Amino acid sequence: MTITTIPDDQVRRPLAALPFWISLTMIPVVWTGALLGGLWVIATPVYAWVIYGLLDLLAGQDERNADPLMDRSGLGWYRAITLVWAPVQFVTLFALIWYVTRADHLSPLEMWGLFFGMGVVSGTIGINYSHELMHQRQRIDRWMSDILLAMVLYSHFRSEHLLVHHRYVATPRDPATARYNEGFHRFFPRVLRQSPVSAWRAEAAMLARRGLPPAHRSNPFWRYGLLQLVMLGLALAIGGWIGLVLFLVQAFTAIWQLELVNYVEHYGLTRRYLGDGKYEPVRPHHSWNSAHRMSNWLLINLQRHSDHHYKPDRPFPLLQTYSDAEAPQLPTGYSAMTAAAMIPPLWRRMMNPKVRAWRRQHYPDITDWSAYKTASNPAPR
């Protein structure tokens, strides 16, 4: 991999930001399925998974980096797509509920398929954009993040991600770090159980340090709950009980999509235990990296995940890609990797040799990996 630097003036050009707006093409695909019915209802997952998986193979990798220290004031066109997406998704989701519950050409199975596809959109794009927004300091960014998460009933993700995942990634205390040989079908129910609890405990601990009780009005869980109730009420008011069920289908699908990506991003990677409840600092080699061009455009550089964990406050246009020596590389983009994760024997065949090679490369002195494999090292302090 030969990494080059993009001149600052090229990064600032509006046309340079345009490829990251490709997520908007998902909206007409969703509506095509709603209008035509039949097999068209699965057009969205086919577009997101199959088409982008193929495009990754054809377009190859983008091995260029922007200067991470460049003036961020010239990145407005990049930020704009993340702010625009929340109202776009809101209108699409609830207009779709209104339309489908009044259409007579869609069977119950076609409705399910259509809202499964909508969940692919709100999970692949919506939660991903929420993830970018929650890392920003502006109030409007964080509100848009909360609104996007409320649309999929996963609002606690903001607390869990910022207060738990980034601090404890690749340690036994992080629910979202998939363990070596842990198949996705075991990982998914585990993270669904553990993440809300760890998020609540993290917020309660922050309040306790201020001398406040967990139920204090400043606990964001009050906002999370209210926003989620608003979304559920809208779905019920617009589409009745059928609309509510369809809303829940898309929400569950979006959560499944998110946790599939979480599974891929850190599978089998661990930080060295230093003793006395301490772990080494987070480095680029503690996350899987992917420089595949097309899926990084769709996912606003989420696959440059090694750098995101190394420098969490870095906006997506400035995220760096790394060489094989600096960070472990996925065989291809998330579109194909998440599909492989659904088939544990295939996943282990693809990824376990890479994890073992990663251990030999970065930790040749560690000979007993049993505690790391089972996440039975002491929890970090």
UniProtKB/TrEMBL annotation:
Localization annotation: Cell inner membrane
Membrane topology value: Multi-pass membrane protein
Key words, A-Z: Cell inner membrane, Cell membrane, Iron, Membrane, Metal-binding, Monooxygenase, Oxidoreductase, Transmembrane, Transmembrane helix
Any one Pfam family match given in the protein's UniProt record, by short name: FA_desaturase
Top-level lineage group: Bacteria
InterPro entries: AlkB/XylM, FA_desaturase_dom
Enzyme class: oxidoreductase
Gene Ontology BP terms: lipid metabolic process
Residues annotated as domain Fatty acid desaturase: 114-338
A GO term for molecular function: metal ion binding
GO cellular component: plasma membrane
Stretches that traverse the bilayer: 15-34, 80-100, 112-131, 226-249
EC number(s) recorded for this UniProt protein: 1.14.15.3
UniProt xrefs under PANTHER family: ALKANE 1-MONOOXYGENASE 1
Protein family: Belongs to the fatty acid desaturase type 1 family. AlkB subfamily.
Protein name (database record): Alkane 1-monooxygenase 2
Organism: Jannaschia rubra
